[in-house]
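Sequence, please.
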């Protein structure tokens, strides 16, 4: 049996419930439109449908769902009725929340907070499904969940809007080297939140680069270097090992000077 009348279509979520309230059956689900913050109910005369999208009731709107940095790129999905937790007058609905926000380095929101991928529960009046529904959807007040992306909105992106799920990795414009005997400190501009850096060296007389280290900061110190002229290459990379344009610098490690151990008063 179709879940909607002939000639009409609406998307049904992978997680939903059907329950009886009043004289009708209702399909309850989170609106499957990406970024929507609605939990909807669709009526039918039979439990298998067809359910009427034109008679949809918006039961609840979560004001913290949306595809912007201000919303932490949160999405809602798999809203279901919870009959065991409900009463004759109130309907408890659970739903899931997650974030599709990623940083410049393609690091997900879950690496910055554990408050996003958690189930939520709401209670709506059963009268909304029985004909005497109150005007408008139930809405919750502001929560105490911390805002993450809005602290640095330019460093966060909607992974669904990016090819391959990650923003392009920014390039480096320069690398600065501070050599000294046996070591060098390399530094470069920060390419973005969550970007990692692969550091390579081309030693004197070598045929190719040698990968030295991968760091998350925008500087590193390499030690145990012999005297001679080196070429350093720093490659920015994201969590999925996609890379951006690299920067290089040439530096020279000086010779170590021998330490004199002469006896005082003798040449």
């Amino acid at each position: 049996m179709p879940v909607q009348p002939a000639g009409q279509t609406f998307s049904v979520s992978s997680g939903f419930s059907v329950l009886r309230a009043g004289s009708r059956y209702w399909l309850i689900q989170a609106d499957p439109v990406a970024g929507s913050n609605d939990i909807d109910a669709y009526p039918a005369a039979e439990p298998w449908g067809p359910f009427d999208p034109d008679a949809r009731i918006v039961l609840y709107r979560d004001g913290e769902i949306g595809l912007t940095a201000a919303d932490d790129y949160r999405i809602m999905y798999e809203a279901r009725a919870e009959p065991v937790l409900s009463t004759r007058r109130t309907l408890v609905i659970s739903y899931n929340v997650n974030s599709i926000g990623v940083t410049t380095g393609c690091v997900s929101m879950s690496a910055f907070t554990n408050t996003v991928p958690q189930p939520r529960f709401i209670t709506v009046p059963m009268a909304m499904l029985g004909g005497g529904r109150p005007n408008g959807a139930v809405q919750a007040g502001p929560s105490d969940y911390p805002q993450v992306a809005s602290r640095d909105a330019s460093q966060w992106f909607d992974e669904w809007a990016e090819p391959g799920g990650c923003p392009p990795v920014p390039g480096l414009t320069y690398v600065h080297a501070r050599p000294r005997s046996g070591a060098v400190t390399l530094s470069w501009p920060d390419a973005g939140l969550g970007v990692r850096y692969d550091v390579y060296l081309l030693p004197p007389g070598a045929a190719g680069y040698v990968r030295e280290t991968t760091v998350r900061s925008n500087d590193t110190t390499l030690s145990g270097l012999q005297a001679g002229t080196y070429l350093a290459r720093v490659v920015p990379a994201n969590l999925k090992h996609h890379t951006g344009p690299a920067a290089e610098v040439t530096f020279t490690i000086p010779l170590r000077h021998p330490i004199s151990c002469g006896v005082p008063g003798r040449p």
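The radius of gyration is 30 Å.
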